[in-house]
Structures are given as C-alpha cells and as structure tokens.
Amino acid sequence: MGTGTEKILVIGANGQLGTELTEALRNVYGAAQVVASDLHTPSHPAGDEGPFEILNVLDERRLRELVREYRITQVYHLAALLSAVGEKKPKLAWELNVNGLLNVLETAREGAIKKVFWPSTIAVFGPNTPREHTPQHTVTDPSTIYGISKLAGERWCEYYCAKYGVDVRGLRYPGLISYKNPPGGGTTDYAVDIYLQALETGTYQCYLAEDTYLPMMYMPDAVRATLELMEADAKRITIRSGYNIGAISFSPREIAAEIQKHLPRFTVGYRPDFRQQIADSWPQSIDDSTARNDWGWKPQYDLAEMTRDMLTNLKNLKKPVLA
Ligand code: AKB
Asked: For the segment 141-150, what is each residue's pLDDT rounded down to a tens digit?
C-alpha cells in the first residue's frame, strides 16, 4: 500500500512524542492524511495544519466513529500515564494504559485498521532484571504501576497479533529528550529539565542521585525508530510486544559535565526523591540487537551531539542567563 492510501490516527497527539511524531507523519504522508487527536485542542498545532479531533481513548464508541469517518488504516496510540504520575494515580494509570490499548486493539480486530503502533518502555523491567545490556527476553518484574500496565499491554499486543492477526508493533522507549515539547510526568524527565534550567537559571536541583545511569534517546532518533519499525516488512517483525531500542546511557553527573562544556558556570545540586527508587529498578543500558537484526535499528545521536543540538535550539527559543 503506497503512502497516498494510508489514513493515520494519532491518539495522544499533544504529548511530547505525539507532537513530533504527528509532524513527521504529516511530512511523509501529507497533512490531510494524518488525524491528530487528544483530550484537548493543542495550544500549538503540530506541524502543517491537518485534521484534529477531540478523543478520549477510553471512549470506545467515539474511537470507532473516528475510525469509520476518516477511514483510518493505521493507528499510533500514544496516550498513557507515565511512571512518576502513575505512582500518584495508580488506578487511572491502569485504566488508561491497559483499557485504552484494548479499545484500540478491539477496533483494529474488526478489520479496517491495518497497523497499530503502541509504545512500551524500559519500565517493563524491574529490580531483578539484569541492569546492564538488558536483553530483549529476560526477567520482567516491574515495580511501578506504569511498568505493570505496560507489561500487561505488551502481552495483549502479542495476543492480538497471534490470535487475531492484528499487525501491532511497539518499542520499549528509554527516556526521551526533546527541546520542542516537555515530557509528561516520567522518571527520566530530569534529562530535559536540566537543559532548560541550565539556560534559564544557571543552576539545577536534580531529583536523582548523581551516579544514576539510565538509558535515554534524543527525539529525532526516537521518531526515526518509530517510522522505520512501522515501515518494515511484516515478515521481519519477530517481536510484537515491544522491541528494546538503545541509544545513550548517562548519569546526571555526566549530562551536567557535558552541559558545562558549553556553560561553564552551570551548577547542579542533588536531592533524590521517590523517583530514585523507580530509577534504581530500571536498566542502565539496553541490548537492542534484536531490533538491529530485524529491521536495521541504529541510533545517530550520542550525549555530546545531543547536548550541542539541544542547547543551540533552546537558545533560539529562550533567553539564557549564562550564555
Ligand atoms: C518515564 O520516565 O516514565 C518514561 C519512560 C522511561 O517510559 N520516560
């Protein structure tokens, strides 16, 4: 099927990933082919003007109506509650992260939707998972409700593919870093905030300890990974739950040192809070060899390159105090 015949629905299009993915999809498929949807109309429309619809993914009837009305062939279902917010609202996190996905999978099973993208996360791993070069298949004993709900979601995706032939594909994203949109309540959010505070105030109070290593990824790599996975020949897709994808691993001390190369007067303090325990239960680095072998995944940005790009772009948006 050529790009001209695809009609794509993005659910959760106002979020950190949704905004940039909608823009990228509109560049590939054309603005009119990509229907953005979220709970509220966006304050800054994503990329080229294109259709926008209000949608709560828990409203299955409305989801079906939109799929019918726009003749949707692909769904990118991104709406979720992340790890830190999920700990404050565990029931809502379960409801949205699992039942929202089930509504999408059920609608896909009925026929018109040919492909579904659904984001999983490194949060499906837990304290008994090997923390370095975490394999694709290993112990998954998540301790956050976010991780528990995403692990359940992974199993549902495998099930709908095996049982009903739904072409569902997913990635276990690490922390995502972008200068365009703020992250939405995760444990890895510090890696975005640190850049903003470095430029705005010249100092940052980090809620994770300085030597806490976590897997991270710059947004252009994350968007490219998503598009490449969705464009890959279905015969090459051996994982229907969520592919491990790696890019960069660093600690707060290392990202601060990289920022200090550009802003030497930048200072960081450390005051770990409840998110430390979450971070300590997650991998420090990821083995993504299955994604590399199956569909050719390869990251492009390292910490130095990402930092240069983040600071350059943020400086154009903000007035730095320590330039
Ligand atoms: C979070 O921190 O909750 C997310 C994630 C790793 O999935 N960024």
From this structure: 999 999 999 9
